[in-house]
Amino acid sequence: MRILVDVDGVCCKMEETYLKLVYQATGKMFSHEQVTEHDYFKCLHLTTEEYNKARDLLFQPGVVRGFESIAGVYEGIAKIESLGHEIVFVTSPYKNHPTWAHEREQWIHERWPDRIIISTKAKYMVAGDVLIEDKASNIEKWVEHCRDRKWHNGLGIGLLYDQPWNQGMLKGGLGVRRVFNWNDIVFEISRLIQ
User: Fold this and answer.
1) How many CB atoms are closer than 10 A to CB 185?
2) How would you label 87-120 residue by residue, b for 16+ Cβ within 10 Å and e otherwise?
3) First-to-last CA distance in the chain?
4) Pairwise CA distance, residues 178 & 160, whole Å
5) For the domain 2-13+69-192, what is the CATH code?
6) Of the candidates 62, 76, 71, which has an alpha carbon nearest to the alpha carbon of residue 110?
7) Whether the Cβ atoms of residue 185 and residue 76 lie closer than 8 Å to each other
8) pLDDT per residue over 82-113, tens digit each?
9) How far apart are CA 13 and CA 53, in angstroms?
10) Cβ of 62: how many Cβ atoms within 10 Å?
11) Nearest to 76 by CA among 132, 149, 139, 135
12) How far is CA 193 from CA 130, 132, 182, 189, in A?
């Protein structure tokens, strides 16, 4: 099977870096649990000046390559590949960030050389059997598109990686499951091949 894997919020802790940059720019400290929307800066109720200061720090070269990995991601991807599945990273570029796409590709290739990377805002257009994603709207649109296009018999499976910003956002329905860690992801993918 082809397993599509989002990067930010699934493989790396982008929000942790954001929170450190917000603290550096504003002196305001926030926890991971306070990031309750996918638009991190909006949910933190930053002023325009605070947002701009934090954004300027985020846009510095090298920041994206410094994102920390999520626990279990290396073992999870290795296990999925050992089961004979293809991993394709599908990531959205950060709007107007001058080095995001290049640094994201470097971040991935430093950890998983020679993997396919697709950088797009239109993840629903990428064919696969499973999409692992932290943004509920991306998963729901992808699953619906799989069914409309009859890809893989119209049964694409979306695995929503649990994060504070996707609580209560999943409409549910056939083909979408919530996962809480990489062990859950491996378990769900293993179930699909039984």
Assistant:
1) 25
2) bbbbbbebeebebbbebbbebbeeebeebebeee
3) 13
4) 5
5) 3.40.50.1000
6) 62
7) yes
8) 999 999 999 998 889 999 999 999 999 999 99
9) 20
10) 9
11) 132
12) 12, 16, 17, 7
Total residue count of the chain as it appears in this document: 194
User: Both tokens of residue 71?
Assistant: 């626990």
Model-wide pTM > 0.85: yes
Task: Determine phi and psi for 193, rounding to 5 degrees.
Answer: -95, 0
Domain ranges in the chain?
Answer: 2-13+69-192, 14-65
The one-character DSSP state at 47 is -
**Measuring CA to CA, how many Å separate 66 from each of 18, 48, 138, 154?**
11, 25, 25, 38
3-class SS of residue 164? helix
Per-residue pLDDT tens for 3-25?
999 999 999 999 999 999 999 99
